[in-house]
Amino acid sequence: MNRLTFPLLKSLLVATLAVSAGVTAAEAPRAAPKADPAKGGTLYDSGDAARGLPACMSCHGAAGNSTIVANPKLAGQIEAYTHKQLVDFTTPNRQNPIMTPYSKMLTEDEKRHIAAYLATQQVKPGAAKNKDTVELGRKIYRGGIAEKGVAACASCHGATGSGIPAQYPRLSGQHQDYTYAQLDAFKNGARKNSIQMTTLAQRMSAEEMKAVSDYIAGLK
What we know:
The chain is an all-alpha fold and about 220 residues long. The chain folds into two domains: about 35-120, Orthogonal Bundle (Cytochrome Bc1 Complex, Chain D, domain 2), CATH 1.10.760; about 135-215, Orthogonal Bundle (Cytochrome Bc1 Complex, Chain D, domain 2), CATH 1.10.760.10. The protein is built from eleven helices and no strands. It has helices at about 5-25, 35-45, 55-60, 80-90, 100-105, 110-120, 135-145, 155, 175-190, 195-200, 205-215. It is globular and about 55 Å long.
């Protein structure tokens, strides 16, 4: 090996490492920017007319407190859960004639901003309406239905329905009609984004689902 060989090999090695580092850096995933509740609030309240993006408020109410029983209250919902649902609406696992097109129009960052905004809002309490079934609803929520293998709702969603961040949503104060509709969607396979909820709902009767939905509305 002559005296020119070693410097040449050294130069080639340095160049190779530099190119390799450059490729690695280029392939590294972009870190998600910190969610901005202020930007999310603007989108929620006003949408984006230039893109044909409607305001979330028109269906879900001021500050996420829907007054339409078929549309969920979103105020105070766990940020990670809201973001996941906005993503899920763009997949076959949770299709909705309104939310699917809307979610597809939102960028990933916008989904995060909206979720962050809603998490900062205060949910307005609801109330159970059917005094004849509230005790059944309480038993199911707090103790489940042992003979059917239905776990207590409280075991995942908390004693007061506050949920567990990034895993299970807040339920307290939610409209009875909406909660029942989701349980029914899990039961009949229309909603497929939770194996746990599909399994549990399929073991429950319509009466049991209605009772626990009503009880949840009054949780505080």
